[in-house]
């Protein structure tokens, strides 16, 4: 059961990384990039046609969210459960993002979607009435029956004092330097999603039908975005920005 409040959560300082493994770091090459010959303008040319939707898709993401481009409403029909990792879990530097495989579910009516992974973009990919944010977090879910996918996004805004941020993000970004280069893997700090789930439940959402924002740009992906940003302190944002670089696809609407 989902805890009814976050009172039992004690934010803890991230521990230093326990393990550090190298995939083949020297030869690791990202499948695509955010500039140059493998950048967004060329994604559809990469591979053997499997990325063609990046150019020919009709419902591509990200978009600028506003009253005419997405539904604005309440999240009450959605039940979000994200499983904690008190001892941390593994984060991967894919060269295109930092990705963390994780467990959880999103339920709506009789449909259940299972969390596959979550990852980060700097700056945000979606815009909100023309505004962008320093970071966007994406949780990617899949329905085990029909393989349809949903993505849940959170905008992240800076806050002023050290430790003022969302504990989950601080626990990841505080040690993100341990996966500084593509191909590296290391442990996060303890992950507790309680406050993030509370944030989701207590704010309006935007919904629209779009795509993956990375090759193969698959459609449809049902997007759900929390309308209110969560926070990260400036110090940890700078650590994350240094590792993530620029990894946002331009808006498509
Ligand atoms: Zn993403």
UniProtKB/TrEMBL annotation:
Enzyme superclass (EC): lyase
Cofactors demanded by this protein? Zn(2+)
Is the keyword Lipid biosynthesis assigned to this protein?
no
Which GO terms label this protein's molecular function in UniProt? carbonate dehydratase activity; zinc ion binding
A Pfam family annotated for this chain is Carb_anhydrase
Q: Which reaction does it catalyse?
A: hydrogencarbonate + H(+) = CO2 + H2O
EC number(s) stated in the UniProt entry for this protein? 4.2.1.1
Identify the domain of life: Eukaryota
Q: Pinpoint the Alpha-carbonic anhydrase domain residues.
A: 30-253
Q: Which UniProt keywords apply?
A: Lyase, Metal-binding, Zinc
The job of this chain, per UniProt, is described as: Reversible hydration of carbon dioxide.
Q: Which family does it belong to?
A: Belongs to the alpha-carbonic anhydrase family.
Q: What is this protein called?
A: Carbonic anhydrase
Q: Which organism is it from?
A: Eremomyces bilateralis CBS 781.70
Q: What is the lineage of its organism?
A: Eukaryota, Fungi, Dikarya, Ascomycota, Pezizomycotina
């Amino acid at each position: 059961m989902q805890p009814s409040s976050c009172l039992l959560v004690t934010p803890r300082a991230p521990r230093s990384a326990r393990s550090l493994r190298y995939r083949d770091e020297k030869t690791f090459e990202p499948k695509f990039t955010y500039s140059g010959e493998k950048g967004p303008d060329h994604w559809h040319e990469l591979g053997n046609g499997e990325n063609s939707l990046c150019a020919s898709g009709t419902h591509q993401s990200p978009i600028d969210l506003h009253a005419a481009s997405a539904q604005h409403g309440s999240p009450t029909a959605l039940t979000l459960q994200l499983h904690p990792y008190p001892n941390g879990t593994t984060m991967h530097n894919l060269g295109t993002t930092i990705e963390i495989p994780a467990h959880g579910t999103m339920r709506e009516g009789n449909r259940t979607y299972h969390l596959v992974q979550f990852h980060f973009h700097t700056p945000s990919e979606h815009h909100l009435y023309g505004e962008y944010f320093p970071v966007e977090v994406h949780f990617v879910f899949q329905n085990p029956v029909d393989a349809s996918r949903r993505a849940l996004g959170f905008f992240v805004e800076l806050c002023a004092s050290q430790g003022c941020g969302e504990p989950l993000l601080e626990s990841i970004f505080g040690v993100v330097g341990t996966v500084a280069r593509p191909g590296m893997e290391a442990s996060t700090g303890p992950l507790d999603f309680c406050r993030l789930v509370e944030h989701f439940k207590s704010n309006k959402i935007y919904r629209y039908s779009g795509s993956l924002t990375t090759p193969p740009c698959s459609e449809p992906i049902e997007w759900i975005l929390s309308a209110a940003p969560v926070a990260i302190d400036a110090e940890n944002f700078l650590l994350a920005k240094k590792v993530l670089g620029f990894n946002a696809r331009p808006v498509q609407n």
